[in-house]
Amino acid sequence: xxxxxxxxxxxxxxxxxxxxxxxxxxxxxxxxxxxxxxxxxxxxxxxxxxxxxxxxxxxxxxxxxxxxxxxxxxxxxxxxxxxxxxxxxxxxxxxxxxxxxxxxxxxxxxxxxxxxxxxxxxxxxxxxxxxxxxxxxxxxxxxxxxxxxxxxxxxxxxxxxxxxxxxxxxxxxxxxxxxxxxxxxxxxxxxxxxxxxxxxxxxxxxxxxxxxxxxxxxxxxxxxxxxxxxxxxxxxxxxxxxxxxxxxxxxxxxxxxxxxxxxxxxxxxxxxxxxxxxxxxxxxxxxxxxxxxxxxxxxxxxxxxxxxxxxxxxxxxxxxxxxxxxxxxxxxxxxxxxxxxxxxxxxxxxxxxxxxxxxxxxxxxxxxxxxxxxxxxxxxxxxxxxxxxxxxxxxxxxxxxxxxxxxxxxxxxxxxxxxxxxxxxxxxxxxxxxxxxxxxxxxxxxxxxxxxxxxxxxxxxxxxxxxxxxxxxxxxxxxxxxxxxxxxxxxxxxxxxxxxxxxxxxxxxxxxxxxxxxxxxxxxxxxxxxxxxxxxxxxxxxxxxxxxxxxxxxxxxxxxxxxxxxxxxxxxxxxxxxxxxxxxxxxxxxxxxxxxxxxxxxxxxxxxxxxxxxxxxxxxxxxxxxxxxxxxxxxxxxxxxxxxxxxxxxxxxxxxxxxxxxx
Length: 663
Fold this sequence. Notes:
elongated, six-stranded antiparallel barrel, 21 strands, alpha+beta, 21% strand
């Protein structure tokens, strides 16, 4: 059975973003950011605050018009740009969003349009997807529309998205048909014209759009492949779509700048010969300057792409202006992404452009660095953390640091908003490769430490597929990936016990230290707690199953609270049964030798001391990939908890409440 092409999968995802809008008439809309829909003004209406009905997935939601084109008519048609933004105050959870391509498609570009049409069932608006072609630009009542040919633009497609087969982004919104019931095409409004709506609403939506796609790669992973398959671009030095997307996500974290003059000055400072933009659209946000610069003819080889130079300028400016409200993290995030996008070839030019935007004490954190540990022998690493939201423990925040020493720990950006666990895991997985590149590169073996809540310990980060040019392998085969318990890092009172047991492992091999714990029989929580209290040498555990399975979970919790610094287990496994059928006693050197995982762990890790465990487990994961049946090798699903007490994240003290403020 043949697989779907990236374009076919992207067309399916486009349909998932499609909604039915019932306002002053009935038509189509599509999600562009969480809770935000774009459609035509002649479908939704032109009055901000007016209610419309938005149907998605068979459920109807209330929508509110936040911004729309004016309702004036000319020859029965709404004037340019005929666009509206609708917010869903209570949107569906987890809906997809399109990626917006603000550059109008060149003539000949194939386009996919989708909408809700009643052409076949006169009383029912059913989903319809059709193929069209861009035929140039058409002047229309104060603006330039995209002319559509080669297909039927029937009633109901109005307000629907037009997907470019060249870039994999939605470049326009269907406006009208040239002639009903024919294949003569029609017109579409370019999505860049959203900048003609209410500036505040536009900034809110476009920033939410960029943040969404910086965290969720479902759409962009396909659109990148569609753009690559459409043919190479040899116009000069350009950013990859993934690099541009990451930069836009970082720009969306910077403070709002509402003065049009400042955006114009930023454009002129970068553009060739200081020329202003040719576009008829206003510059309302950092993104607009970026995209207008990206549309220019690229500079000569060896020079920074104009949009990358602009991003460097914004990072330098944000660092210079300080960090009221925590914006230093956003400046650092943008700087890192500038350096990553520049790579080795343009790295020096990017560093010169960044100037004093390089953070103090962080001068070595650049793309193309040698990745060598500092002179004091402390191992550098990337540390990622997923922690519970203080307001709702069903949601989680993500943050990443670059660790060079206990005195040199740099945040890679601000902490994320509260997210469901699956999205938090996906966000952390997407951030790791970029930070590894900054710390020395994916080609060099480094350390990744993941501080995780118990419910995320079995997430398969080592099997994360890497970006080009390493797309053929997995993160765990290139990097030494270990986990650390969030619970212990949120309770400073447990740190002393961790330090004591870590010292017990100094110089001891796992053959001497490793014992099996399952939480069954005599290993109930009270008995295990007493065992750990009485025997400080119990510091390395082979769990008889995942910490999320039955009695092993209880054993894991006691071990974390007791300061056990090293644990290992088989990902996703249930507690094993003893081979001899006997009951399990208290932990000891010979306990549960019949357990399959414990036996394999003793065999593969027995001659290794604690400090060498991350490297040995990395080798086991690489060896598993060389096997015809990697799942049968211990390296295929081994998890290593390795919690070095000397590698702590800085704790940020709570600011005292001001006098007279609520407490």
